[in-house]
């Protein structure tokens, strides 16, 4: 039998643990329920038995793998071999970690990051060091707190500019830009959902807003230049996710419908915010229109990690 990616991460954690680990700790490390972990442990127990190792558990103590040091090393190598085919490239991992960290205003533990990007603790540690250096280009810091984890720290505009840069790079690197431009020019929805970042929240929001942009274009007749519209869709994607957990550009002052120009972009913004049940706030609205971005900063050529 083969293990799922999550089950492999649980095995790695048990192999590396000094002593027993509780089911609750395992569940928190991979962001699932204790019940799900218990189902996973049944498969893990069978998998270990086929490799002459034993998964042990005891009330008020926890769960551990009973194996010699040599057997633990062999198990770790076996897991690493299975994970190799599922590895993200270094740049992809760091992109994913930024997207994960940007979806919450709270801390994310190292174990949660490790489970989401599917690599070892050592690799995550190395990636976090590179990530901290990369973030400095955007005036964003990676801060850490013992027992809590990591979070992004910076102005809301700085974090959103960072995300804009990464998503635009993904569009270009995955050759999706031409497909997007063609869809907008012909006002035809893509035949498949675009896998832009690999993070479901971002990808779903982007595809949802793209479809709304095309539907609105059919109704309105005229649409903005595709490159300008794509930039607006990217900003909306970022904004609805950030605004969804109360990460705002600045004020809570609402924009009244009568205050908007009701051009195509205004209508797209208002429809998107209504769909996500979010208020139209003055500074965020300006951001969606591209009016809050410092031209000099936005024009900088930020170099991706090497």
Characterise this structure.
This protein is mainly alpha-helical and 306 residues long. The protein folds into 3 domains: 5-84, Arc Repressor Mutant, subunit A, CATH 1.10.10.10; 90-153, Arc Repressor Mutant, subunit A; 156-298, no CATH class. 58% of the residues lie in helices and 7% in strands. The chain contains 14 helices and 4 strands. The chain has helices at 5-16, 23-30, 34-49, 69-84, 90-101, 110-117, 121-135, 156-173, 177-186, 200-220, 226-244, 264-275, 282-289, 295-298, and strands at residues 54-58, 62-66, 141-145, 149-153. It has a two-stranded antiparallel sheet with strand order 1-2. Mean pLDDT is 85; it is low at 293-306.
Short description:
Helices cover 58% and strands 7% of the residues. The chain contains 14 helices and 4 strands. The chain has a two-stranded antiparallel sheet with strand order 1-2. A two-stranded antiparallel ribbon has the order 3-4.
Low-confidence stretches: 293-306
In N-to-C order, the SSE pattern is HHHEEHHHHEEHHHHHHH
- Strands in their spatial order, largest beta sheet: 1-2
Instruction: Write down the Rg.
Output: 23 Å
- Give me the number of helical elements: 14
The shape is elongated
DSSP, total strands: 4
Helix content: 55-70%
Main β sheet profile: 2 strands, antiparallel
Distance between the termini: 38 Å
Overall pLDDT metric:
85
Number of domains: 3
Tell me the β content. Answer: 5-15%
Structural class by secondary-structure content: mainly alpha
